[in-house]
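Same chain as my last thread, 157 residues:
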Amino acid sequence: MAETDMARERFRGFVELSGIDRPYISKAEERRLLEQGISQFELEPYEARGIVLDVAQERDFRLERDIDRRMLPILARFGGRRKKIGRRKFNHAASLYNTLAGGVLTDEEAKVRVKQVMEANQFKPKRGGLTYTRGWYKGIGEGKKNAKLPALLSRDI
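reply #2:
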């Protein structure tokens, strides 16, 4: 019994160390922590999850999973009955997401996460702009479109 208590305390310290630099735990990071708790520290899945949630509550770490859950009513309010969100409301939702995350995300990261939540819950972007398209929404998460262009221009033909 003393070994399991010691393993729990070691895992608790491990989780605390993982959140020192950035008090935000993404879904992938949470999954990695749970996998390590189960494999390296030989904890049961419910014990590892409980420790992660306890440390997050105690140390005020933000979990992406919880933030996504909190964004659903906000998006539902912004989207209305048709579940369509305009550009202005989308930007507002992204800034709220970043606030809920403790301000550790960039604007682009927050927009990508809000877009993921929207797509997972069947929200749609409103058309807008002069051309009345959804280009503002499609461009989120694209990164630099012409990143390969310098490499293509400098190669020998």
